[in-house]
What does this fold into?
Amino acid sequence: MNILITGSSGFVGSYLCEYFTAMPEHSVLAQTRKNTQKLCNNIKTITFDINDDLTSLDLSSVDVIVHCAGRAHIMKEAESDPLSIYRKVNVEGTLNLAKKAAKAGVKRFIFMSSIKVNGEVSDQVPFTPHDNIINIKDPYGLSKYEAEQSLLNLAQNSMMEVVIIRPALIYGPNVKANFKSMINLAAKGIPLPVGCLDNKRSMVSIYNLSDFINICLSHPLAKNQVFLISDQDDITVKELFTKLAKVQGRNLIAVPIPRVLINFLAKLLNKSAVASRLCSVLIVDTSKNIELLGWRAPFSFDESLKLMFKK
It folds into this structure.
């Protein structure tokens, strides 16, 4: 199968390029925005920007597009109108490429969306693909949802199929942002105020995500569906830091500080967004993946961590 992977220089896209290149049944074409971007293993590249005029772009040999390109979520967005910036890339750019793909005869378009479409906090009721999505406050999450709706509409009016994947927090080799910060904190061996953080979080390793995408490349029942994806192995924040410390040869010193106090101190330090993520529950229901596709996560959280640090 001929696969075009966009966003090939990013965390997810770069791993997918290596993952699918290792499979003899697949031929990978990696999209980059600059000719100077280098990918390992001599992966074939194609240079274009999804917001440009794509009239001359030849997609006639592509079977499936795995669309990872987009403007990433930034906790402290500097733009005065972040929604318009997110829409420009995540909605308009995505639809620009998808329309071109549909005209070129691409069979399937797999869109990497975000759990932020469902929200930031699930409480004790897991998010599902069937949740009624209303009043999205996060500009990034809203742009992803608008892209989803545009793609599903395109699928209804063309021969191209669409698969939408909303992953929980993704981790793996070369991860950045929040998960990287947690790794670094756990490695220091210093006391951390996580002793009372028994709130559960869903996450997904790049290994499980890649395996799921591989299923979605051709599974007939994935057609025009929305999926939530996690390791199916939810853990508390305290457990998370304990495991991150252990895999790096450290023992976690977990200080039992109530969540109310953590949030209060974070507000004083202008770190409310970080504290909110650490202290809240975000879990997802992946039963649809099992029931519809027969997919179960092949790696547990512990197994994924070992692979991640081994690499």
The CA atoms of residues 219 and 235 lie 30 Å apart. The chain has a mean pLDDT of 94.
